[in-house]
Amino acid sequence: MHITQLNRECLLHLFSFLDKNSRKNLAKTCHKLLEVFQDPILWSLLNFHSPVELKKDNFLLGPALKHLSICWYSERVKVCNTEDWMKNSFQKDFCKTHENTVSDFLLDVCNRCPNLLSLTLSGCGHVTDNCILQLLKNCPNLKSLKLENCVRITDHTLKAVTLHGASLRTLHVDFCRNVTQAGLESVREKCPSVMLRAEKSANMIPDSKPEKKLMLEKASRKLVQL
């Protein structure tokens, strides 16, 4: 019996066990399997392990998407999550090649996936507060937002949660060193129903800004002279 002789329900079940690349490769073999590949029911959950995967043509974005995860675990994440002013020219060139990759993808999600229920981002050092704000506005059913090791996330994201996260029930901002205790307290006060977690975040010492660093160096030199 040939695979194309299976009914649609069986083919959908078969596709559900395959990863994105395998689904795409199978879909290339005939028109019937391509139609199965394009069925929204297969694309309610998407997991990505590198920004490069976001550019591949092996998945579909649409209203059926409910759960999205972009978790980048790599040594390069350390570069992306370094404050911009601390990066050397090589690091800046490296980051520039994919700086907008995740943000552009998330903005596409905002426009095409209004029924998103959960979003997890880990190691996405270029994601900004504005990107999360747009997502909260365009995905009103979002219940879970988990951010980890995203250096550009600040209290502006926490404020956006209080203004536009009516459906939110879980918020994690772990290792997001630029959120503050005051921002977290505001979320606790205004959104008491949200389960808030901020491991290694508000208690971390943010990297000094150039001006502050210069002031500290001057003060240190004066102490030495004294």
Kindly describe this structure.
The chain is of the alpha/beta class. α7 (129-138) runs parallel beside α8 and α8 (155-164) packs parallel to α9. The model has no long low-confidence stretch (mean pLDDT 88). It contains ten helices and six strands; from the N terminus they run αααββαααβαβαβαβα. Pfam families: F-box-like. This is FXL22 protein. One of its GO terms (cellular component) is SCF ubiquitin ligase complex.
List keywords for this structure.
6 strands, 2 domains, alpha/beta, 10 helices, 226 residues, Leucine-rich repeat, LRR (right-handed beta-alpha superhelix)
End-to-end gap = 89 Å
Structurally, the number of domains stands at 2
Strand order of the largest sheet: 1-2-3-4-5-6
Residue runs with pLDDT of under 50 for 5 or more positions: none
How much helix is in the residues?
40-55%
Main sheet?
Answer: 6 strands, parallel
**What's the quaternary structure here?**
single chain
Tell me the radius of gyration. 21 Å
- Looking at the overall shape, the CATH architecture of the largest domain is Alpha-Beta Horseshoe
Estimated structural class: alpha/beta
Q: What is the CATH level 1 assignment of the largest domain?
A: Alpha Beta
Predict the CATH topology of the largest domain: Leucine-rich repeat, LRR (right-handed beta-alpha superhelix)
Q: How many strands in all? A: 6
Number of helices: 10
Strand content: 5-15%
Please tell me what the overall shape is: globular
Helix-strand string: HHHEEHHHEHEHEHEH
